[in-house]
Structure to design on (688 residues):
């Protein structure tokens, strides 16, 4: 072990010829660059200027005396300190390379003397122990404890992210410290942690992530005032938990565990319209919050059970469903009276039809009605500027052809009825999160927003024809099309949530490009195809995909071009009515499309207007499977398609063999009883 002294004022850490000496004010020499066993010293004889950490630097103790004349530490390279660390009074730490404290012994101290750091700080030394001597601030960076013992000693720590992680043995002791954390939050992960919260306070502008299991905090306060979606994970215990959210409408706080507050659980929105949503991180999965006392104001709950000695009630408490043991504000009916206006404007709402305004903006569990007294002139607009609109929304009696403008994503929790002649504008998502059987009535209105169904244990029933220029997305619950005609750009339900689609006799047309029908992941999906038909109709040159997810459908009709059918699906009938299209229909790589009867496969090809059907892999890896009978067709252009399953496949004498086909005869189908009927036949009593 030796001492190294900086001399010569400004320079690079790696420049030993000009800046490292073996004594204070001594002569620098080659070979004096500090090692991990050497103490580095900056003092009154170091000269004035900037020390640039230009390459990975190491030392034992880092000591800057109060008399040091060095003004700045700069550079982007890392610094590893194996001992204690002390900064002087006058220097600035603008270096951005991480400082790693890697001591393997205890008794090390960290003294910043009020200097704010511009770098992340890591404690990672097996057997190491560090105690803060004063406050430490690195507000745009991360403090990480990976291995060793850190005692914050009641000091204030200000960082962007406070992280404890890894498998190393570590102890964190906070004393009476206030840990002020920026938007990147508090992150605990890994194993082998001893955590002593003592009387500390976490003051956090972000969330809490904890995968250790259960930790015990003292006070945990969220300070973020801007719009944010924060998560608290882990089933931790808090003495007090507090978030008084700021003046915005989209603040949310989700829990992925079941926390306990031994004193007071405080959550509040800024006002009746700037509300806070407290909810489970998994829709439909209940989280239990146990508290000795609660303070609840302008807050909505979803999938939360209130527990403990607290009386779970407050001021303006909304029920976004799935909750228990929480007393909610009594539901009411609110009537729109103001013509053009914003949903959040109190003056637009009355307690009775045509009544006085300022009755209060509807809570998420209230009923909302627009009727003959709502709009005094044509084409007046309601701008839905709040994220949670109501338990039931009814425009059916509205007059004067109003417009509903959902300029931001919105959620409703019950039935929705539109009025004939009205307009629903904007292109965001409107989500139904009902938990019971509810109705969707469009009254002929073309929907300009994506309708998302997130309704665990709930059912959305269409009451009339549904037309959308965008999409329907089924994430949770049941969509019952109720035999109605449906026309959308696309349909998506590719996830593993429990959900069901009941089609009845519906004809569903999808008119977009891309994955226009998407149940690629069909886990936990119940599809009742009944006598329905699905039509893929877009004829442009951009590719389309019917991702069936290996489910059983009734009729799939392809009238568009460049349509790939993916998944090993089963159809009562597969109808290719896309003659003369350039790409036609493609069977997805390695997939088999099963048709339940020989008559179930048909095309509309004609002379000089062949229907093109191909497999994508080349060499006939993609298949059409029919179990028995004669599959009879003609006027096809067939490439790389296997006919399999037991039936006999006749492509027809007027079809083109594009190579790579097996199991097909490019001849006319045999006559039935000596009589040829048309060009497409089916034997054994099966219809044409």
């Amino acid at each position: 072990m030796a001492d190294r002294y900086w001399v010569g004022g400004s320079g690079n850490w790696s420049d030993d010829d000009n800046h490292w000496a073996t004594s204070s004010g001594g002569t620098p020499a080659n070979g004096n660059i500090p090692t991990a066993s050497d103490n580095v010293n900056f003092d009154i004889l170091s000269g004035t200027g900037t020390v640039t950490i230009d390459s990975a630097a190491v030392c034992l103790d880092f000591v800057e005396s109060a008399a040091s004349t060095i003004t700045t530490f700069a550079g982007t390279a890392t610094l590893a300190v194996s001992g204690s660390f002390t900064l002087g009074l006058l220097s600035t730490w603008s270096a951005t390379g991480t400082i790693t404290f890697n001591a393997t012994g205890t008794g090390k101290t960290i003294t910043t003397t009020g200097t704010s750091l511009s770098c992340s700080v890591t404690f990672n030394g097996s057997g190491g122990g560090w105690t803060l001597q004063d406050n430490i601030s690195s507000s745009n960076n991360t403090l990480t404890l990976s291995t060793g013992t850190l005692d914050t000693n009641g000091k204030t720590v200000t960082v962007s992210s406070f992280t404890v992680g890894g498998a190393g043995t570590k102890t964190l002791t906070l004393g009476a410290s206030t840990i002020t954390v920026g938007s990147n939050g508090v992150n605990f992960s890994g194993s082998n942690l001893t955590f002593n919260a003592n009387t500390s306070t976490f003051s956090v502008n972000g969330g809490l992530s904890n995968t250790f299991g259960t930790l015990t905090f003292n006070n945990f306060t969220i300070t973020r005032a801007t719009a944010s979606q924060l998560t608290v994970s882990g089933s931790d215990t808090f003495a007090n938990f507090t978030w008084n959210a700021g003046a915005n409408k989209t603040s949310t706080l989700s829990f992925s565990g079941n926390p306990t507050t031994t004193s007071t659980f405080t959550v509040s929105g800024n006002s009746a319209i700037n509300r806070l949503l407290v909810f489970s991180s998994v829709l439909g999965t209940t989280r239990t919050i146990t508290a000795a006392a609660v303070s609840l104001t302008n807050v909505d709950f979803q999938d939360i059970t209130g527990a403990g000695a607290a009386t779970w009630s407050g001021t303006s408490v909304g029920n976004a469903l799935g909750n228990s043991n929480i007393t909610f504000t009594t539901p009411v009916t609110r009537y729109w009276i103001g013509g053009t206006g914003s949903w959040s404007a109190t003056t637009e709402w009355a307690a009775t039809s045509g009544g006085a305004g300022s009755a209060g903006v509807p809570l998420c569990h209230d009923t909302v009605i627009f009727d003959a007294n709502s709009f005094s002139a044509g084409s007046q607009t309601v701008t839905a500027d709040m994220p949670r609109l109501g338990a039931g929304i009814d425009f059916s009696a509205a007059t004067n052809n109003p417009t509903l403008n959902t300029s931001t994503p919105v959620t409703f929790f019950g039935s929705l009825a539109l009025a004939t002649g009205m307009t629903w504008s904007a292109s965001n998502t409107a989500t139904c999160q009902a938990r019971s059987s509810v109705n969707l009535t469009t009254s002929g209105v073309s929907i300009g927003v994506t309708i998302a169904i997130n309704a665990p244990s709930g059912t959305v029933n269409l009451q009339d024809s549904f037309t959308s220029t965008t999409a329907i997305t089924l994430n949770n619950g049941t969509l019952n099309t109720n035999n109605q005609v449906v026309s959308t750009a696309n349909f998506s339900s590719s996830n593993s949530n429990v959900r069901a689609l009941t089609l009845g006799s519906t004809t569903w047309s999808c008119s977009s490009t891309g994955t226009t029908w998407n149940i690629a992941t069909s886990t936990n999906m119940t599809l009742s195809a009944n006598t329905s038909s699905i039509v893929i109709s877009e004829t442009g040159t951009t590719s389309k995909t019917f991702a069936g997810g290996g489910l059983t459908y009734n009729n799939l009709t392809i009238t568009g071009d460049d349509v790939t059918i993916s998944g090993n699906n089963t159809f009562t009938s597969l109808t290719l009515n896309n003659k003369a299209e350039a790409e036609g229909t493609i069977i997805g790589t390695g997939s088999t499309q099963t048709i339940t009867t020989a008559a179930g496969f048909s095309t509309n090809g004609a002379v000089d207007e062949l229907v093109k059907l191909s497999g994508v892999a080349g060499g006939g890896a993609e298949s059409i499977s029919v179990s028995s009978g004669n599959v009879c067709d003609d006027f096809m252009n067939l490439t790389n398609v296997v006919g399999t399953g037991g039936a006999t496949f006749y492509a027809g004498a007027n079809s083109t063999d594009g190579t790579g086909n097996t199991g097909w005869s490019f001849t006319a189908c045999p006559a039935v009883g000596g009589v040829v009927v048309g060009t497409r036949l089916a034997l054994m009593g099966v219809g044409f």
Q: What stands out?
A: The chain is about 0% helix and 45% strand. Residues 353 and 447 are 26 Å apart (CA to CA). Confidence is low (pLDDT under 50) at residues 673-688. The two ends are 95 Å apart (CA to CA).
